């Protein structure tokens, strides 16, 4: 069974959680076999998956980046990220249980961590690639969490923070699951916003968005053009010299905005909501093991 997840130009925390977490839950059972695909964490319900393999959906979401997949008897949907995904797929809303990164509660010791940072900020990995967020955080006196760093490091940085301000959705999902209060920085690129609402719907959570402007000229230009245009794509990979223009002005403005956002009251889903979601997922883990003996292995 092949563990399927998205990998962009650089590895990023949310997607890399798949290879980090699933072997801790199911053991060393994943290989490169194309007979079955295991779709876990991420907006990976695409229209482009091959038809032949069985596709086991275990907490994935539909992000609107492609057309909807055509659901047939090759799809085994156990649960999805939220009610918006369930509605898009035409399945029972009760299967919108939550993002499966919530299962980190079973494999991470999240109590008693020493807090080293009052506030941390994690940008979306694409923002980290083209922006000046590390510089802005340094000016603001806020710890910077690189969304492309190793999973163990990012988890430790989240747990060491009193509050996580995050543009990266899995910065919020993981913080929430591990009971670290968080503040949602509205993604600069609008196509990344709906999936947050999808996850939140499973926890009866209303996101209190905070707006932070682009941290560099390059980031501002790409945001204005729209991320998926051909010109913006070229700029993303060849426009780094733009960041030397008005560097200080962008960094100082962004640092000031980060400080203002840090004064906002952070959020958490209710203890009962996160507990119910987690317990439902654990039941689904046992059901899946019963239905697929190849998913039963010693860790």
Automatic annotation (TrEMBL):
Entry keyword annotation includes Transferase: yes
A Pfam family per the record: PS_pyruv_trans
Domain Polysaccharide pyruvyl transferase intervals: 70-184
Keyword list, A-Z: Transferase
Gene Ontology MF annotations: transferase activity
InterPro entries: Polysacch_pyruvyl_Trfase
Protein name, as recorded: Polysaccharide pyruvyl transferase family protein
């Amino acid at each position: 069974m092949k563990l399927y997840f998205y990998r962009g130009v650089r590895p990023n925390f949310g997607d890399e959680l798949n290879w980090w977490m699933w072997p801790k839950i199911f053991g060393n059972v994943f290989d490169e076999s194309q007979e079955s695909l295991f779709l876990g964490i991420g907006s990976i319900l695409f229209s482009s998956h091959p038809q032949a393999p069985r596709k086991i959906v275990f907490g994935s979401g539909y992000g609107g980046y492609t057309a909807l997949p055509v659901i047939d008897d090759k799809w085994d949907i156990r649960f999805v990220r939220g009610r918006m995904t369930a509605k898009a797929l035409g399945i029972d809303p009760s299967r919108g249980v939550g993002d499966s990164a919530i299962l980190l509660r079973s494999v991470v010791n999240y109590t008693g961590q020493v807090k080293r940072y009052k506030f941390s900020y994690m940008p979306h990995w694409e923002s980290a690639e083209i922006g000046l967020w590390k510089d802005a955080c340094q000016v603001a006196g806020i710890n910077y969490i690189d969304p492309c760093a190793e999973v163990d490091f990012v988890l430790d940085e989240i747990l060491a923070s009193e509050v996580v301000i995050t543009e990266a959705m899995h910065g919020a999902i993981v913080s929430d699951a591990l009971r670290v209060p968080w503040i949602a920085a509205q993604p600069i690129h609008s196509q990344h916003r709906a999936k947050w609402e999808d996850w939140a719907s499973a926890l009866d959570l209303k996101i209190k968005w905070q707006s932070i402007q682009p941290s560099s000229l390059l980031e501002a230009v790409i945001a204005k053009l729209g991320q998926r245009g051909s010109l913006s794509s070229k700029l993303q990979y060849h426009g780094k010299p733009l960041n030397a223009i008005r560097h200080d002005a962008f960094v100082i403005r962004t640092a000031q905005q980060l400080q203002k956002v840090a004064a906002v009251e952070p959020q958490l889903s209710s203890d009962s909501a996160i507990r119910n979601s987690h317990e439902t997922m654990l039941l689904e883990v046992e059901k899946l093991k019963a239905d697929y003996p190849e998913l039963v292995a010693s860790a």
